[in-house]
Amino acid sequence: MSDGSDIRLHLLWATELLISRVEGELRASSSLLANSEEKVRRIEEFICLVSSKLMGADPRKIRITARRRESWTTMSNLRLCRGSAPWQALMMLQRSHEDDEVPTLLVHDPRPAAEAVEAPGSPFGRPVVVPLAIGAVVAMPGWLEWSIRPLLPGSTCDVLRFDLSVATERA
């Protein structure tokens, strides 16, 4: 499912992102959610597998608590998003024009004084910039804020957002 080239990025204070990519028949397409339930199930398994590497948990214990598809347009990058669970993952589905520049994921550390450590003198710090090719998957802690810098005016890109948690055993 993956080409085996997962990348770990270390942010401030040992915060990590994990970047991977869906390959082969699972590669994301505009009709991903319209396709079979089997394909959606396999995509979710892949998200859990990639996220488990970051979370240090058994992929079978990772639960997707929410999944939603979003369309980002030229003005969408004015907002910041964050997960509603301890972990989150994003998957790039499509963009409106293949010849546009690749959209980028901007990851922001919302903790107090993070901007002073990242970029002294800059009021908002520097975000971590991750290019989002079609099929790219990024897993990160749920508290990190992010936005997508879309393409040219009139262009859009679609992403799947996943909120993730680890199932705990009850005594």
Furnish the topology, listing elements before pairings.
Blueprint: E1 7-10, E2 16-21, H1 37-55, E3 62-72, E4 87-95, E5 104-108, H2 114-118, E6 128-131, E7 136-141, E8 145-149, E9 157-166
Antiparallel strand pairs: 1-2, 2-7, 3-9, 4-7, 4-9, 5-6, 5-8
Key features of this structure:
171 residues, globular, Jelly Rolls, alpha+beta, 3-stranded antiparallel beta sheet
The oligomeric state of the chains shown is single chain
Q: In which order are the strands of the major sheet placed?
A: 1-2-7-4-9-3
CATH-level-4 superfamily name: q2cbj1_9rhob like domain
| Total helical elements | 2
Strand/helix succession? EEHEEEHEEEE
- The chain-level structural class is alpha+beta
Whole-Å distance between the termini? Answer: 35 Å
Q: Level of helix content?
A: 10-25%
Mind summarizing the main beta sheet?
6 strands, antiparallel
Proportion of residues in extended strands: 35-45%
Shape: globular
Radius of gyration, taken over Cα atoms and rounded to an integer in Å: 16 Å
Domain tally: 1
What integer is the average pLDDT?
Answer: 76
| Name of the CATH class | Mainly Beta
